[in-house]
Amino acid sequence: xxxxxxxxxxxxxxxxxxxxxxxxxxxxxxxxxxxxxxxxxxxxxxxxxxxxxxxxxxxxxxxxxxxxxxxxxxxxxxxxxxxxxxxxxxxxxxxxxxxxxxxxxxxxxxxxxxxxxxxxxxxxxxxx
Length: 128
Description:
By secondary structure, this protein is an alpha+beta fold. It has helices at 16-27, 90-103; strands spanning 3-12, 30-36, 44-52, 55-62, 82-87, 111-112, 117-118. A hairpin with a 2-residue loop joins strand 3 and strand 4 (55-62). The longest helix is centred in the last third of the chain and has 14 residues, at 90-103.
């Protein structure tokens, strides 16, 4: 297998502090990063909550975005914003990337975040 699980799941919230407290108090999770996504965009707050050795929640609080309040019954909540899979090795990452590009599901661009490499792709249903 080329994967060893999920890297992160991106979720929306209207109350970052409340969400942090919940995951810290219940799961002993730790907040690795918290602040504007970019220095020039204070309306988009991003925090990274570590929930396992290779797993995190990417929590977005976006001023004026009401999606986080839309909590309808199960199977009517809509799709998650995005998820990230964790490649087993850099060689596995390269193999996955080649396969995605060959299918037209990704372009050649790779972001180097330091501890991880990131490649954006879309599955057949359009989930990024």
